[in-house]
Amino acid sequence: MKNRFTRLFGYTAVVGLLSLSTACSSDDDINSPDPEPNPTESRWITIAGAVMDETPGNGNGGTVLYSISKENAEDPNYAINVFDNGFQVRSQRTARLQSSVDGSTMFNIAYGGDNGGEFSKYIVNGGDNFEPTGGLVNISQYAGTSPRWVKLFDGDKTGVAVSVTSPMVNDGDTYEYTRGTATIVTIDMENVEISNNISFELPLPAEEEAAGHHIFRLDTPVLNAAGDKLIIGTWMGKTDPATGERDANAYERLGSKAVVVDYPSLENPKIITSTVGFGDTSGYRSFNSFLAEDGNIYQATQRDPGGSHILKINTDNEYDNSYDFSLDEALNVTGSYIQSWRYVKNGIAYVMYTHDDAAYTSFSDRTQQSFLARVDLNAKTAQKVDLPYEPDMYFFQYQGFVVDGDNVYVTVSPVGKDGNIYVINSVTGEVTKGAQLLNEPGNHFIGVF
Length: 449
Fold this sequence. Notes:
The chain is mainly beta. The protein contains seven helices and 31 strands. It has helices spanning 10-21, 25-31, 70-73, 82-85, 140-143, 206-210, 327-331, and strands at 44-50, 63-69, 79-80, 87-88, 96-99, 105-109, 118-124, 130-138, 148-151, 158-165, 168-171, 174-178, 180-188, 193-202, 213-223, 229-238, 257-262, 270-273, 289-291, 297-300, 309-313, 325-326, 337-345, 348-354, 371-376, 381-384, 402-404, 407-412, 419-425, 431-437, 444-448. The strands form eight sheets. The chain has a five-stranded mixed sheet, with no helix packed on it. The protein has a four-stranded antiparallel sheet with strand order 4-2-1-31. Strands 5-6-7-8 form a four-stranded antiparallel sheet, with no helix packed on it. A hairpin with an 8-residue loop joins β6 (105-109) and β7 (118-124).
C-alpha cells in the first residue's frame, strides 16, 4: 500500500509499510490494481479524492487519484482506498481536473503553489499508475497561478483557462468605476502547448459601473453548436462607491451575464444578459454550461435571489428569455443552489444542489447538505434521486461525473465517512449501488472521471 500523504519518516514508515504488506488476502484484493479493461468493452473509472489541511472538507491538502475498471466500479463488494493508495496530482490545493471522454487520459492544471498554472496530462494505466505524457506547459504568466479552466467538447483537443483582474478607477477622491480585465488562454491538449491568449476589458453600461457593479470572475467556457463562439460564465461583484471596498450592503442584483467571444480568435467580446436569472453563471469547480442536441446551451445560476435557474442560450448566442426553468419550482424548495451538474442527453441532466432547509454540516456554520436531482430540461421538471443522504454530504467542490451510454456514475459519501459509487440509469432513473469508497477523517470525494 502506498500512502502519498504520510508524514512519517524513516523506520516508522518502513515498519508501517511492512505491516501492511503482510495483511490478509482480502485486503490485498481491495488494494491491488485492476487488470487492464478491454478498450472495446470497458473503460477506466478514475476516483478523485480531496485531502483536508486543517479544516475538514476544505480539500486544501491536495488531490489523489485511483482508477479501477468499470466492472469493479459497479461491484458493491469491491472496495477502494483512494487516500492510502492513490496517486498525488501536482497541485498545492484541490486540483482542477478534466478527463478524456473515454477515461483513458487525465488532464490537470495545478491550483496555487510553486507550480500553480502548470498544465499536465497523464495516461491512465489502472490503480495509482498515472503515466505523465506530453510534457508540461505553464500558463501562469497569462492567467495567474490559480486559473479556472475546463476542456471543450471538441474531441479532447482544447482546454480553455480564464482569469480576471478588477482594478478600481478614481478621479482624485471620487469613485468612477470598477472594471474587469479578462485573460483567456487556449491550450492545445494534444501537443501540450499554448495555442492562443488574449486580454481585454469587460465594460458594463455606465450606470451599472457607476454603482460599482463589475465582473470579477470568469469560468466554465463552452463552445457553441457552430463552433465559432465561446460562451463564458461570469461571477459578478460590486464595489461600494462610498468606501471603495467590497459592497457588504444589500443591493439589487443585475441579470445573469455571460461573455461571448469569437472562436478560435478569442476576439470581439460581447456581454449578454438574462432577464430570467439574476445569479452568477460561473459555476465553481466543474462544467456549468452544456451544449445539448437541440443546438442550445443550458447554463446554471448560483447565488440567485430566486433560487438557482437553468438558463437557455440559443443558436444566435443570446439568452432565450422565454425559457424559464426555476429549480425552486421544479423541486418545491426555496433558495436552491446548484453546486455542480452534468448534462447527459435527450434533455436529461443530473444536478447536485442544496437549499434553504438543508441541514447544517458539522464542519461549517452554513446549510451545505447536498442532494442530487434528475432534471428534465424539456419538461422543466426535477426529482430528487433516492440516495443515503446525511448532513455532511457535501458536493460544493464536486468536479467529475462519468457518462457512459445511458449510465451516470457519481461518488456519494459524507465528508470523512465511507461511501459508494452509484450508477444511475438516465433513462429509467434506476439507482444501483456500486463499489465501496473507503474514506479518512476530514477528506471527501470530488468526482469520477
